[in-house]
Amino acid sequence: MLLEPEREEIVRACRKLAAAGLVVGTAGNVSVRAGDLVAVTPSGVDYAELAAGAVGVHRLDGTPVEAPLAPTSELPLHLAVYEAYPGTAAVVHTHSVAATAVSTLADELPAIHYYVAMFGGTVRVAPYATYGTDELAANAVRALRGRTACLLGSHGAVATGQDLKTAYDRAAYLEWVCDVYLRAAAAGTPRLLPPGELEAVAAKLASYGQRR
Ligand SMILES: [Zn+2]
Predict the structure, then answer these.
(1) Is the CB of residue 27 less than 8 Å from the CB of residue 94?
(2) Could you tell me the distance, in angstroms and rounded to a whole number, from the CA of residue 131 to the centre of ligand 1?
(3) Could you tell me which of 117, 171, 169, 121 has the C-alpha nearest to residue 145?
(4) Which residues, in sequence order, are CB contacts of 61 under 8 Å at separation 6+?
């Protein structure tokens, strides 16, 4: 089986997304790029029943290589992100509740918490376009410039990474920050971090964690 480790990793990530409540039913989709191939979740398969063999492998131009099922309808979005940002090797797209709520309200997720730095700056909301279209893919690519996440207007969230673990974690943190933003904005006007603070935190986060 082509890209077996990547396809298995996608199945595990989908189960985690469902268990964490970041996706409902068959919503959301996950992909991993390896060279000029992309492994991506199929359309409309419940994550509890998803097997690695059902995760399709496509070329970067979308041509199926080993794909028993139709790919996610957002395949154009995943492929457009890989084409525009060659350093990206994983994309996680969810309809997580708080991120989707913010996508209906705002033009960006402002710097209300230092975690926003992990997305490269305030998170833009891409203008609405119908799901699965090249227009939505292009809007997402624009919103991701210099960022590792964006919101899709009245739709959901996209997180990217140099590997799937990083993209998954960003999707989870993005949901958390959006949830905090909604709660804070419901109670008052959230304070924003001072100018320059996101950049300072980004530099600090780059060396955060257990170094080997
Ligand atoms: Zn979607």
Answers:
(1) yes
(2) 6
(3) 121
(4) 79
Predicted confidence (pLDDT) per residue in 28-49, tens digit: 899 999 999 999 999 988 888 9
Report the sign of the C-alpha dihedral through residues 151, 37, 130, 146, in that order.
Answer: positive
DSSP per residue over 91-129, as a string? Answer: EEEE--HHHHHHHTT-SEE-SSSGGGGGGTSSEEEEPP-
Phi-psi region of 3 (alpha: psi -120 to 50; beta: other; left: phi over 0): left
Rounded Cα distance between 87 and 60, Å, is: 14
Q: Contact, 92 vs 119, CB < 8 A? A: no
Place of tokens 């395949």: 75
* Cβ contacts of 165 within 8 Å, gap of 6 or more: none
Catalytic residue numbers? 74
Centre of ligand 1 to C-alpha 93, Å, is 7
Residue 140, Cα to own-chain centre: how many angstroms? 10
Strand partners, 108: 124
3 CA distance to ligand 1 middle (Å): 24
> Rounded to the nearest whole angstrom, what is the distance from the C-alpha of residue 192 to the centroid of ligand 1?
29
Task: Look up the pTM and report it.
Answer: 0.96
